[in-house]
Design goal:
This protein is an alpha/beta fold and 264 residues long. It is 35% helix and 23% strand. It has an eight-stranded mixed sheet, with helices on both faces.
Length: 264
């Protein structure tokens, strides 16, 4: 297969946790033409399983603290249950998919985050240069859709829990070394909203300039801040276009475009 363009799509927990939304998304994703890669987060399954096993879930600033017991749980959940469920659904929809953690095929290496100022445990940060684009190219040329979860490895036998948006951004940057790449973050909202309770308040374009002002005045807050950091990072490192949209709008152009102002 001659690769002219690659679509990297990321789905988060609000899609994964809703069986109807996930089913609709899988149908839309399977219908996307051309080579594509899916990156997924973990949803609430890991929290539910931790509770069932009597393991306390600790969150700091919205991020999961991943101790030794928790890395086992999130690996089983993200790289196992959720990943294989999505792969099976894609196969049923006629999309030949293969599931990956970052360790499989050395797809994504990460570095354990320093314990200061906050010790998050077995949490990793990714350098996009450590994405195995040779493997991605081989798979995509063979007509196989990689499905990557947010469990990566350090190259020395340690598994690390990574932010799924960061994984998607790094994979898109790695894919851009193969062919022009489009990155789409799908979640439950229409895009970045000026008023989170008003779907009609969609902000159509975000650059590094209005991002700073929107963050300063509180329009952009909480989980949207790291998502936009990842989007801007991808836009600045070779990704052709980045969009944040509702999962329902995967196949149309509705959503927020994220780009550097110098690329307008």
């Amino acid at each position: 297969m001659d690769i002219k363009e690659i679509n990297v799509v990321k789905i988060g927990g609000n899609v994964i946790d809703d069986p109807s939304a996930l089913n609709d998304f899988i149908g839309n994703f399977a219908n996307m033409q051309g080579p594509k890669i899916l990156v997924h987060g973990g949803g609430k399954e890991a929290t539910r399983l931790s509770k069932a096993l009597g393991i306390e879930t600790v969150m700091i600033e919205g991020r999961r603290v991943t101790d030794r017991e928790t890395i086992d749980v999130v690996t089983m959940t993200y790289a196992g249950l959720i990943n294989k469920r999505i792969v099976a659904m894609l196969q049923a929809a006629g999309c030949d998919a293969l599931g990956f953690s970052g360790a499989d095929g050395n797809l994504i290496k990460a570095s354990k985050r320093a314990p200061n100022p906050i010790d998050y445990g077995y949490v990793g940060d990714i350098n996009p240069a450590d994405v195995n684009d040779r493997l991605l190219k081989t798979l995509l040329e063979s007509g196989i859709t990689p499905v990557a979860c947010a469990i990566c490895h350090d190259g020395n036998g340690m598994l690390l829990n990574c932010n799924a948006d960061s994984v998607a951004s790094a994979v898109a940057i790695g894919s851009s070394r193969i062919a022009p790449t489009l990155l789409t973050f799908c979640f439950e909202k229409a895009g970045v909203l000026a008023d989170v309770d008003d779907e009609s308040s969609l902000i159509p374009l975000i650059t590094e300039e209005n991002f700073d002002s929107l963050k300063a005045d509180g329009t952009i807050a909480k989980g949207m801040i790291p998502k936009l950091h990842n989007a801007l990072d991808a836009a600045g490192k070779g990704v052709k276009a980045v969009r944040i949209c509702k999962a329902d709008n995967l196949l149309n152009e509705v959503g927020t475009i994220v780009k550097l102002s110098s690329l307008q």
